[in-house]
Amino acid sequence: MPSRTWAPPAPYDLACTLRVLRRGSGDPTCRLEDDGTWWRTTLTPAGPATLKIIDKTGPAASRRITGEAWGPGADWVLERLPALLGAHDDPAAFVPRHYVVAVAHRKHAGLRLAATGLVMESLIPTVLEQRVTTGSARDAWRRLLRLHGEQPPGPAPAGMLIPPSPSTWRRVPSWEWHRAGVDRARATAILHACTRAPRLEEAAAMPLTAAMARLQFIPGVGPWTAAETLQRTLGAPDALTLGDLHLPVQVGYALTGRRDGTDEQMVELLAPYAGQRHRAARLILLGGRMPNRRAHRAPHSRIAHL
Protein backbone atom coordinates (compact mmCIF):
# COMPACT_ATOMS: atom_id res chain seq x y z
CA MET A 1 0.00 0.00 0.00
CA PRO A 2 1.81 3.15 -1.16
CA SER A 3 1.18 6.39 0.68
CA ARG A 4 2.11 10.05 0.53
CA THR A 5 2.02 12.84 3.10
CA TRP A 6 1.45 16.53 2.40
CA ALA A 7 1.82 19.45 4.78
CA PRO A 8 -1.01 21.91 4.06
CA PRO A 9 -0.63 25.65 4.40
CA ALA A 10 -2.30 27.46 7.24
CA PRO A 11 -5.18 28.02 7.27
CA TYR A 12 -6.48 24.99 5.40
CA ASP A 13 -9.96 23.42 5.33
CA LEU A 14 -9.93 19.90 3.90
CA ALA A 15 -13.72 19.42 3.91
CA CYS A 16 -14.41 22.76 2.24
CA THR A 17 -11.81 21.97 -0.41
CA LEU A 18 -13.01 18.46 -1.29
CA ARG A 19 -16.77 18.86 -0.82
CA VAL A 20 -17.27 20.05 -4.39
CA LEU A 21 -16.06 16.66 -5.67
CA ARG A 22 -18.84 14.75 -3.92
CA ARG A 23 -22.17 14.42 -5.76
CA GLY A 24 -24.29 14.22 -2.64
CA SER A 25 -23.90 12.20 0.53
CA GLY A 26 -24.67 8.96 -1.32
CA ASP A 27 -22.07 9.39 -4.06
CA PRO A 28 -20.54 5.91 -4.64
CA THR A 29 -17.22 7.51 -5.67
CA CYS A 30 -16.66 9.89 -2.77
CA ARG A 31 -17.37 9.41 0.92
CA LEU A 32 -16.72 11.44 4.08
CA GLU A 33 -16.47 9.46 7.31
CA ASP A 34 -17.53 10.83 10.69
CA ASP A 35 -13.90 11.13 11.78
CA GLY A 36 -13.06 13.40 8.82
CA THR A 37 -11.49 10.70 6.65
CA TRP A 38 -12.23 11.00 2.92
CA TRP A 39 -12.46 8.09 0.49
CA ARG A 40 -12.33 8.48 -3.28
CA THR A 41 -12.58 5.93 -6.05
CA THR A 42 -11.45 6.88 -9.51
CA LEU A 43 -10.47 5.55 -12.91
CA THR A 44 -7.03 6.90 -13.78
CA PRO A 45 -5.03 6.52 -17.01
CA ALA A 46 -3.12 3.78 -15.15
CA GLY A 47 -6.26 1.96 -14.03
CA PRO A 48 -8.71 2.02 -11.11
CA ALA A 49 -7.66 3.32 -7.71
CA THR A 50 -9.03 3.76 -4.22
CA LEU A 51 -7.70 6.73 -2.25
CA LYS A 52 -8.02 7.24 1.50
CA ILE A 53 -7.25 10.75 2.75
CA ILE A 54 -6.49 11.10 6.46
CA ASP A 55 -6.23 14.52 8.09
CA LYS A 56 -3.87 14.38 11.05
CA THR A 57 -4.93 17.69 12.51
CA GLY A 58 -2.55 19.32 14.93
CA PRO A 59 -0.72 22.60 15.39
CA ALA A 60 -0.27 24.43 12.09
CA ALA A 61 3.42 23.59 11.96
CA SER A 62 2.85 19.85 12.39
CA ARG A 63 -0.41 19.22 10.54
CA ARG A 64 -0.15 16.48 7.94
CA ILE A 65 -2.57 15.03 5.42
CA THR A 66 -1.80 11.47 4.36
CA GLY A 67 -3.07 9.69 1.29
CA GLU A 68 -3.11 5.89 1.10
CA ALA A 69 -3.95 4.25 -2.22
CA TRP A 70 -4.73 0.84 -3.67
CA GLY A 71 -5.04 -0.53 -7.17
CA PRO A 72 -3.24 -0.12 -10.51
CA GLY A 73 -3.79 3.66 -10.37
CA ALA A 74 -2.41 4.06 -6.83
CA ASP A 75 0.85 5.72 -7.87
CA TRP A 76 -1.00 8.02 -10.27
CA VAL A 77 -3.37 9.38 -7.62
CA LEU A 78 -0.63 9.76 -5.02
CA GLU A 79 1.59 11.67 -7.44
CA ARG A 80 -1.28 14.13 -7.89
CA LEU A 81 -2.45 14.17 -4.27
CA PRO A 82 -1.18 17.71 -3.52
CA ALA A 83 -3.00 19.08 -6.59
CA LEU A 84 -6.17 17.26 -5.55
CA LEU A 85 -5.89 18.92 -2.14
CA GLY A 86 -5.40 22.35 -3.69
CA ALA A 87 -1.64 22.73 -3.33
CA HIS A 88 -1.36 24.44 -6.71
CA ASP A 89 -4.10 26.92 -5.94
CA ASP A 90 -3.01 30.44 -4.97
CA PRO A 91 -5.69 32.12 -2.85
CA ALA A 92 -3.29 34.98 -2.16
CA ALA A 93 -4.05 36.19 -5.69
CA PHE A 94 -7.64 36.92 -4.60
CA VAL A 95 -8.52 40.41 -3.35
CA PRO A 96 -12.09 40.91 -2.04
CA ARG A 97 -13.84 43.93 -3.55
CA HIS A 98 -17.15 43.70 -1.67
CA TYR A 99 -17.90 43.53 2.03
CA VAL A 100 -19.90 40.29 1.82
CA VAL A 101 -17.09 38.67 -0.16
CA ALA A 102 -14.49 39.86 2.32
CA VAL A 103 -16.49 38.37 5.21
CA ALA A 104 -16.82 35.01 3.42
CA HIS A 105 -13.13 35.12 2.49
CA ARG A 106 -12.13 35.53 6.13
CA LYS A 107 -14.56 32.86 7.34
CA HIS A 108 -13.43 30.35 4.70
CA ALA A 109 -9.76 31.29 4.51
CA GLY A 110 -8.87 27.60 4.37
CA LEU A 111 -10.62 27.01 1.04
CA ARG A 112 -8.42 25.72 -1.77
CA LEU A 113 -9.59 24.80 -5.27
CA ALA A 114 -9.13 21.07 -5.81
CA ALA A 115 -7.81 19.79 -9.15
CA THR A 116 -8.44 16.14 -10.04
CA GLY A 117 -6.56 16.19 -13.36
CA LEU A 118 -9.36 14.04 -14.84
CA VAL A 119 -11.97 15.32 -17.29
CA MET A 120 -14.44 12.48 -17.86
CA GLU A 121 -14.76 11.83 -14.12
CA SER A 122 -16.33 15.28 -13.70
CA LEU A 123 -17.89 15.72 -17.13
CA ILE A 124 -20.33 12.79 -17.02
CA PRO A 125 -22.03 13.63 -13.70
CA THR A 126 -22.10 17.28 -14.77
CA VAL A 127 -23.96 16.39 -17.97
CA LEU A 128 -26.42 14.45 -15.82
CA GLU A 129 -27.12 17.70 -13.94
CA GLN A 130 -28.23 19.56 -17.08
CA ARG A 131 -31.80 20.90 -16.97
CA VAL A 132 -32.87 18.82 -13.95
CA THR A 133 -32.90 19.16 -10.18
CA THR A 134 -29.79 18.26 -8.24
CA GLY A 135 -31.63 15.39 -6.54
CA SER A 136 -32.68 13.85 -9.86
CA ALA A 137 -29.15 14.05 -11.23
CA ARG A 138 -27.65 12.46 -8.13
CA ASP A 139 -30.22 9.67 -8.20
CA ALA A 140 -29.31 8.96 -11.84
CA TRP A 141 -25.58 8.95 -11.02
CA ARG A 142 -26.06 6.47 -8.18
CA ARG A 143 -28.37 4.20 -10.19
CA LEU A 144 -26.08 4.04 -13.22
CA LEU A 145 -23.01 3.36 -11.11
CA ARG A 146 -24.77 0.57 -9.24
CA LEU A 147 -25.49 -1.05 -12.59
CA HIS A 148 -22.19 -0.41 -14.37
CA GLY A 149 -19.57 0.63 -11.82
CA GLU A 150 -16.78 -1.73 -10.79
CA GLN A 151 -15.75 -2.90 -7.33
CA PRO A 152 -12.87 -0.74 -6.10
CA PRO A 153 -9.50 -2.15 -5.08
CA GLY A 154 -8.42 -2.19 -1.46
CA PRO A 155 -10.52 -1.69 1.67
CA ALA A 156 -12.99 0.84 0.30
CA PRO A 157 -16.16 1.20 2.40
CA ALA A 158 -19.12 -0.93 1.36
CA GLY A 159 -21.14 0.57 -1.47
CA MET A 160 -18.29 2.47 -3.10
CA LEU A 161 -17.71 1.89 -6.81
CA ILE A 162 -15.24 2.77 -9.56
CA PRO A 163 -16.90 4.91 -12.28
CA PRO A 164 -17.42 3.12 -15.59
CA SER A 165 -14.87 3.55 -18.37
CA PRO A 166 -15.90 5.44 -21.52
CA SER A 167 -16.27 2.13 -23.37
CA THR A 168 -18.60 0.86 -20.65
CA TRP A 169 -20.71 4.03 -20.74
CA ARG A 170 -21.10 3.54 -24.49
CA ARG A 171 -22.61 0.10 -23.90
CA VAL A 172 -25.33 1.26 -21.52
CA PRO A 173 -28.67 0.25 -23.08
CA SER A 174 -31.13 3.00 -23.92
CA TRP A 175 -33.73 1.65 -21.48
CA GLU A 176 -31.29 1.94 -18.57
CA TRP A 177 -30.76 5.62 -19.30
CA HIS A 178 -34.53 5.98 -19.37
CA ARG A 179 -35.07 4.11 -16.10
CA ALA A 180 -32.44 6.32 -14.46
CA GLY A 181 -34.42 9.38 -15.54
CA VAL A 182 -31.85 10.52 -18.11
CA ASP A 183 -33.40 11.95 -21.28
CA ARG A 184 -32.07 11.29 -24.76
CA ALA A 185 -30.28 14.65 -25.04
CA ARG A 186 -28.14 14.07 -21.93
CA ALA A 187 -27.49 10.42 -22.74
CA THR A 188 -26.44 11.36 -26.27
CA ALA A 189 -24.10 14.07 -24.99
CA ILE A 190 -22.42 11.53 -22.68
CA LEU A 191 -22.06 9.04 -25.52
CA HIS A 192 -20.54 11.71 -27.79
CA ALA A 193 -18.08 12.62 -25.02
CA CYS A 194 -17.12 8.99 -24.43
CA THR A 195 -16.40 8.55 -28.13
CA ARG A 196 -13.85 11.38 -27.88
CA ALA A 197 -12.65 10.70 -24.34
CA PRO A 198 -8.87 10.69 -25.07
CA ARG A 199 -9.11 14.10 -26.75
CA LEU A 200 -11.19 15.47 -23.89
CA GLU A 201 -8.74 14.23 -21.28
CA GLU A 202 -6.07 16.33 -22.98
CA ALA A 203 -7.93 19.38 -21.67
CA ALA A 204 -6.56 18.59 -18.20
CA ALA A 205 -3.18 19.95 -19.38
CA MET A 206 -4.55 23.00 -21.23
CA PRO A 207 -5.05 26.62 -20.21
CA LEU A 208 -8.64 27.37 -19.23
CA THR A 209 -9.69 29.07 -22.49
CA ALA A 210 -8.39 26.22 -24.65
CA ALA A 211 -9.87 23.61 -22.32
CA MET A 212 -13.28 25.31 -22.46
CA ALA A 213 -13.16 25.25 -26.25
CA ARG A 214 -12.09 21.60 -26.34
CA LEU A 215 -15.01 20.49 -24.16
CA GLN A 216 -17.56 22.56 -26.06
CA PHE A 217 -16.58 20.82 -29.27
CA ILE A 218 -18.83 18.00 -28.03
CA PRO A 219 -22.51 18.36 -29.03
CA GLY A 220 -24.56 18.93 -25.89
CA VAL A 221 -21.66 20.41 -23.90
CA GLY A 222 -22.00 24.16 -23.54
CA PRO A 223 -20.38 26.78 -21.33
CA TRP A 224 -22.28 25.70 -18.21
CA THR A 225 -21.14 22.08 -18.44
CA ALA A 226 -17.59 22.97 -19.47
CA ALA A 227 -17.11 25.43 -16.60
CA GLU A 228 -18.57 23.08 -13.97
CA THR A 229 -16.28 20.30 -15.22
CA LEU A 230 -13.10 22.35 -15.36
CA GLN A 231 -13.65 23.86 -11.94
CA ARG A 232 -12.96 20.37 -10.64
CA THR A 233 -10.50 19.12 -13.26
CA LEU A 234 -8.20 22.15 -13.28
CA GLY A 235 -9.11 23.87 -10.03
CA ALA A 236 -9.62 26.88 -12.31
CA PRO A 237 -10.28 30.05 -10.27
CA ASP A 238 -11.79 31.90 -13.25
CA ALA A 239 -14.09 29.14 -14.59
CA LEU A 240 -17.28 31.09 -13.94
CA THR A 241 -20.51 29.13 -14.42
CA LEU A 242 -22.75 30.78 -17.02
CA GLY A 243 -26.26 29.66 -17.89
CA ASP A 244 -27.20 28.58 -14.37
CA LEU A 245 -30.74 29.06 -13.10
CA HIS A 246 -29.82 30.29 -9.64
CA LEU A 247 -26.23 31.57 -9.59
CA PRO A 248 -26.80 35.00 -11.23
CA VAL A 249 -29.67 35.65 -8.81
CA GLN A 250 -27.58 34.60 -5.82
CA VAL A 251 -24.59 36.70 -6.85
CA GLY A 252 -26.77 39.68 -7.71
CA TYR A 253 -28.67 39.48 -4.43
CA ALA A 254 -25.50 39.16 -2.35
CA LEU A 255 -23.79 42.13 -4.03
CA THR A 256 -26.72 44.45 -4.78
CA GLY A 257 -29.79 43.18 -2.93
CA ARG A 258 -31.66 42.71 -6.23
CA ARG A 259 -33.47 39.47 -7.08
CA ASP A 260 -33.51 39.67 -10.86
CA GLY A 261 -29.92 38.79 -11.74
CA THR A 262 -28.90 37.70 -15.23
CA ASP A 263 -25.67 36.26 -16.59
CA GLU A 264 -24.79 39.62 -18.10
CA GLN A 265 -25.30 41.40 -14.78
CA MET A 266 -23.31 38.73 -12.93
CA VAL A 267 -20.38 39.07 -15.34
CA GLU A 268 -20.44 42.85 -14.83
CA LEU A 269 -20.60 42.54 -11.04
CA LEU A 270 -17.72 40.07 -10.98
CA ALA A 271 -15.55 42.06 -13.41
CA PRO A 272 -13.35 43.31 -10.52
CA TYR A 273 -12.46 39.66 -9.88
CA ALA A 274 -11.13 38.94 -13.37
CA GLY A 275 -9.02 35.81 -13.18
CA GLN A 276 -10.74 34.79 -9.93
CA ARG A 277 -14.46 34.91 -10.80
CA HIS A 278 -15.21 31.30 -9.91
CA ARG A 279 -13.56 31.73 -6.51
CA ALA A 280 -15.56 34.92 -5.91
CA ALA A 281 -18.83 33.19 -6.84
CA ARG A 282 -18.03 30.20 -4.64
CA LEU A 283 -17.25 32.45 -1.68
CA ILE A 284 -20.55 34.24 -2.22
CA LEU A 285 -22.36 30.90 -2.07
CA LEU A 286 -20.42 29.91 1.05
CA GLY A 287 -21.32 33.27 2.58
CA GLY A 288 -24.94 32.19 2.69
CA ARG A 289 -26.60 35.51 1.82
CA MET A 290 -29.21 34.02 -0.48
CA PRO A 291 -32.62 35.27 -1.65
CA ASN A 292 -35.82 33.38 -0.92
CA ARG A 293 -36.13 31.21 -4.02
CA ARG A 294 -39.92 31.09 -3.71
CA ALA A 295 -40.00 34.82 -4.26
CA HIS A 296 -38.11 34.52 -7.55
CA ARG A 297 -39.38 33.10 -10.81
CA ALA A 298 -36.74 32.93 -13.53
CA PRO A 299 -37.73 32.99 -17.19
CA HIS A 300 -38.17 29.43 -18.45
CA SER A 301 -35.55 30.00 -21.16
CA ARG A 302 -32.83 30.26 -18.52
CA ILE A 303 -33.45 26.72 -17.30
CA ALA A 304 -31.97 25.09 -20.39
CA HIS A 305 -28.32 25.41 -19.44
CA LEU A 306 -25.78 23.21 -21.15
TrEMBL record:
Cellular component terms per the entry's GO annotation: cytoplasm; protein-DNA complex
Taxonomic superkingdom: Bacteria
Protein keywords: DNA damage, DNA repair
GO biological process: base-excision repair, AP site formation; DNA alkylation repair
Coiled coil: none
GO molecular function: alkylated DNA binding; DNA-3-methyladenine glycosylase activity; DNA-7-methylguanine glycosylase activity
Cited InterPro entries: Alkylbase_DNA_Glycosylase/TA, DNA_glycosylase
SUPFAM superfamilies: DNA-glycosylase
Protein name: 3-methyladenine DNA glycosylase
Organism, as annotated: Streptomyces solincola
